Amino acid sequence: MIAKPDGSVIYECSRAGATADAVQMGTDAGEELKAKCGPIEEFFGDEEIAPEPVSSMSGKQTDGLGGYQE
C-alpha cells in the first residue's frame, strides 16, 4: 500500500502464493504500486514526509506499528 499522508489517495495491491515465491511476489507488488502512483516525488509533491519512526502527520515518535511512544 502507498498513500498520501492526508489519505486523499490510496493505492493497494496484494499477492498470494507459496512462501518460496515471497520475494518475487513482493517485487511484483512493488512494481505494480510504482506504476499506479508514478514518480514518488510527484506523488507526494511538496508534502514533507518524516521517516519512521516519526509520524508524518504529528511528528511524534512512534513504535513503527502505529503506536505513539511517550
Kindly describe this structure:
By secondary structure, this protein is mainly α. It has one domain (1-70). The protein has helices at 22-37, 40-44; strands at residues 2-3, 10-11. Strand 1 and strand 2 form a beta hairpin. The longest helix is centred in the middle third of the chain and has 16 residues, at 22-37. The protein starts with a strand and ends in a 26-residue tail after the last helix.
Task: Kindly state the number of beta strands.
Answer: 2
The proportion of strand residues reads 5-15%
Describe the global form: flat
Report the average pLDDT across residues: 81
Distance between the termini: 27 Å
Largest sheet: 2 strands, antiparallel
How many H/I helices? 2
- Identify low-pLDDT runs: none
- Radius of gyration from the CA trace? 15 Å
Helix/strand-derived category reads mainly alpha
How are the strands of the largest sheet arranged?
A: 1-2
For this structure, the quaternary state is single chain
Helix content: 25-40%
What is the total number of structural domains? 1
Series of secondary-structure elements, N-terminal to C-terminal: EEHH
Summarize the SSE layout with pairings:
Layout: E1 2-3, E2 10-11, H1 22-37, H2 40-44
Antiparallel strand pairs: 1-2
Features:
single chain, 70 residues, mainly alpha
